[in-house]
From TrEMBL:
Belongs to the major facilitator superfamily. EmrB family. Keywords: Cell membrane, Membrane, Transmembrane, Transmembrane helix, Transport. It is found in: Cell membrane. The keyword Phosphoprotein does not apply. Residues 15-516 form the Major facilitator superfamily (MFS) profile domain. Its main location: membrane. The keyword Magnesium does not apply. It is a multi-pass membrane protein. Pfam families: MFS_1. It comes from Schleiferilactobacillus perolens DSM 12744. The chain crosses the membrane at residues 12-33, 53-69, 81-105, 111-131, 138-157, 169-189, 201-221, 236-253, 273-292, 312-330, 337-358, 370-390, 402-422, 490-512. This is Drug resistance transporter, EmrB QacA subfamily protein.
Amino acid sequence: MDKQQQKTTVKQWIALAAMGLGVFMGLLDVTVVNVALPTMVKDFNTTFTDLQWVLNAYTLVYAVTLMIMSKLGDMYGRKKIFLGSLILFVVASAVNGMAPSLLILDIGRGVQAIGGAGMMSLSMALVASNFAGRQRGLALGILGSVIGISTASGPLIGGYLVENFGWPAIFYVNVPFGILAVVLTIVYVKETPSYGKNQKIDVGGMLLSAIGLFAIIYGLIVKEGHPRWSWTNPEIAILLIGGIAVMSLFIFVESRVAHPMINLGMFKERHFVGTVIVAFALGSGIYAYNAFLTALMQNYIGYSAIETGVRQLVMSVWSLVLGPVVGLLTARFSSKWMISIGMLIGSIGYLTIAWVIAPGVSFLELWPGMVMIGITNAIVNPVLNTAGMAGVAPHEMGMASGLLNVFRQFGTTVGVVGLGLIQNNSYMAHLNTALPQVKMPTQALNGIKDALINAGPFSGHTIAFSARLAKSPFAHQIQTIVVRAFDNGMIALTLTAAVIALIGALAAVLLLRTHQQSQKLDLKAARN
């Protein structure tokens, strides 16, 4: 290798570092705020219900704008849109850290999410266009590692920052790292062609997709906040049915415009359909499950946020260790089998955790299953990125990347709601069966039962072990019932996650291409 090639290679890896830094910040901010909520409640003198919008604003806007930012990147140059998104993210982070009111913080989180969506949706496409051949697989593998680590390290990083510097630190920390990423992007990331110079922006498609996704995801958020409401409740049903109707109209419009926002022909490729199904399974199974595992470790086992984050390193560390290796292996082995085996390992991991969950469960019993879930994330994420780009035309790489991320994020939202409902139903069923056996005055018992059900599985522990209830002679009996109710719900949702992972494995086996087929398509795409 001559000096010029070495210089070029070094520039490529520095470019990857810039994109990885942006992705890490964007995804970390999806989860890092969770551990700061108790401190924010005190500082803003508000309730957890009002603070939910600090989370929901980011989740909603992030999911809604992923495809739009992808399309703009394909049309006008991915580096330009990525850089603009990065700058927007840094500025919004600084505003959030200084936010004088909850309203300003909520608005800032929405703006920050636009930047996060632009960074996330274009990162894979930029990597794919900045690297070639075997190096592309390695680079996408490293990016997959970053994705895996960022989603799992939120409790640890957030807990450390909040405990030592206060909640504004979770936003301020983005500023210096963001500025570094901006400089590295300007200097080292290569721009892609502006494929849509002579095209009109599909404003109708962008608006319809934004409205449709917003309605569906907001409907799921409302259901998550009111688990006892039925799906036919007008506040939920109108949003979900309306969202589905708008997305149906979006598909109709996109099939008839000259330059659509999304090339629907991509969904005629069974391989691409397979990758988005796996992305959805990854989000609804692996990523959504983290919230419930964190609740188990903090609310019921009793670990602090930092202690929980440290123990969850047995999951996240595998992305760091295996990601680059897996990226190299994709050049030699079939993504079909790597993804299916990876998802199968995760399914076994969930079954292992479900087997040990019981009152008094400890980290020593949970870690083998957690390791297997971490290995799944470490294998599937990098390979999925590479598989999703296989055979995709250069001018559509941004959209392919965006769609993978939309399905992954949408899967996470659906998973949090769906797994939460399964847990809640099992939790309430056990309370309704076991609490009547407590021999205490009926009125007092009904009051306790209503409080526990309204609090839900996450907060029921706080009520059961409160100082007020501890004075009751029935405290121990009620506490045992609440812990068993939570455990029953946790087992039910863990088994559901195992099934989701198994479905992802089957989708990979049945729909993804073989290694030889992918190589032929990559050669064809390179010639074109």
